[in-house]
Amino acid sequence: MEEMETRLCAALLLTFSCEHGMWCRHCKQDVPAVAPATNGAVHCARCHGPLDQPAFAKSVSDSGVGLDQESQRVVDPHALLQASDSGYRHDEIRRAIRGAQRRASAAPRMLRFDPPEPLVEQKRVEPRDPASPNTRVDQPVRENHRPTQWVAWALALTGAMTLGAGVGLMFWSLTEARPELWEWGIGATLTGQGVMIIGLVQLLAGLWNSSRSANQTLRGVQQELRRLGRTTESLLGANAPTAASFYADLARGASPEMLLANLKGQVDALSSHVARD
């Protein structure tokens, strides 16, 4: 009779394992069970180790199941490590450790908010210094070139007048037959030519310096215009409703009405831009 009950229990366990499978603590997975004919124990079909026989369902009392006590259960890692005979406890420890690591790594990212980069760039606009030395660079250069130009013009005019006087003396000596005037005319002509050449060279040097200073002045004006354009764009971007200002208001905790007004301004600006295109 006892042998019949043992075989019946083994048949029931086999039927249960075929339908649902049984947990093997050595293989760490659900495996089919095998029951030898000698005894009623159930073994794993892979590693041939003994399997834990599941407890069959029992009748539930009228008082119900203590769900509050079950939900308030706290997993103690040290107690689980000390009682590490079951594979279920090892898996529960691993899941608890992985969940704690996942929550610890995700917590700072959830609390962090980085504003967009255009907002930082707009806040870094430096004020323009009105007393910049680059705006008045050409004035000392012009003042230094004025005396040089006057001297050059004086030398050129003096050389031209001396050259004219020498040519007149030479013509007079030829027409009036006065050879003593020929020597004076040649000397005056040569001296006038030299003085006039020196004056013309100084005039050319002054013109070259003036053109160089004018080029430097034009470059400075171009740089000032570029800086003025960048400053104007930054001021317009700071005052106009943009995505950067929207994110700044959102990070500051502005009211919903302000955020809606910002979005409406962005839509109006986009519609006007599309209409212009």
TrEMBL record:
**Species, as recorded:** Posidoniimonas corsicana
Show the ranges annotated as biased composition (Basic and acidic residues): 111-129
- Reply yes or no: does the keyword Membrane apply: yes
Q: What is this protein called?
A: Uncharacterized protein
Q: Does the keyword Transmembrane helix apply?
A: yes
Q: Where are the transmembrane segments?
A: 150-172, 184-208
> Which key words are in the record?
Membrane, Transmembrane, Transmembrane helix
Which parts of the sequence are annotated with region: Disordered?
A: 104-140
